[in-house]
Amino acid sequence: MHAYYFDNLPGDQRAPHYDRELPDIAILDKIGVLHWHIPVSTNGEYPEIDALARERDYKNRDVITITKEGLGELYESKIKMFYEEHMHEDEEIRYILDGSGYFDVREHPTDAWIRIAVSAGDLIVLPAGIYHRFTLDEHNVIQAMRLFKDEPKWTPYNRDATTDTNPHRQQYLEAISVS
After folding, report:
1. pLDDT in tens, 128-171
2. The pTM of the whole model exceeds 0.90
3. What residues does 48 pair with on adjacent strands?
4. What whole-number distance in Å separates Cα of residue 2 and Cα of residue 11?
5. What are residue 102's DSSP bridge partners?
């Protein structure tokens, strides 16, 4: 995992868009983003992931693969959908099994984009209520294990005045002590 400030310049969202390094990786902790590197299993067993799932009460999981070949004609529209700035009312937990991509998260209180490059073995937890977006990188492939507290769901709430007042958003802001 490598986190840095996004440059906000026009161009392919899958490009690195590197602006500058974070002065301190602890900035991710301050905005509630958790991250680990857990080497991908060669035997299909994931004791570290299982332990984290028990500790954080994740009851379900699945594996998704996103590729241009796999999604065919839907690829571009799906990538654009993932890249819309949004939040969820649940944590977003992803363990990267193969490939690579970017999670962009909003820093607070500056509202700057922090780009988090993830690849195989990276595990990231985005808190409920954080504004973020996702895109593949220029390799156009990622396989990720998604973990869920309840039934698998992925409901994005695109950023607008309504999401700014969403109770999960408000709880998030209180949790990171931003008013």
Report:
1. 999 999 999 999 999 999 999 887 777 899 999 999 999 999 99
2. yes
3. none
4. 20
5. 117, 135
Residue corresponding to tokens 């699945």? 62
Token output for 150: 């309840």
What six digits make up the tokens of 136? 């593949």
**What are the distances in angstroms from CA 118 to CA 3, 96, 108?**
9, 7, 21
| C-alpha triplet 37, 118, 97: angle, nearest 5° | 70
CA dist 156 and 135 (Å) reads: 15
DSSP string, the chain: -EEEEE---SS-TTS--EEEE-S-THHHHHTT-EEEE-PPPSSS--HHHHHHHHHHT--EEEEEEEEHHHHGGGHHHHHHHHTS-EE-SS-EEEEEEEEEEEEEEE-TTT--EEEEEEETTEEEEEPTT--EEEEE-TT-EEEEEEEESSS-----EESSHHHHT-HHHHHHHHHTT--
How do strand 141-148 and strand 92-106 relate by DSSP bridges? Answer: antiparallel
Q: How far is CA 32 from CA 26, 123, 132, in A?
A: 10, 14, 12
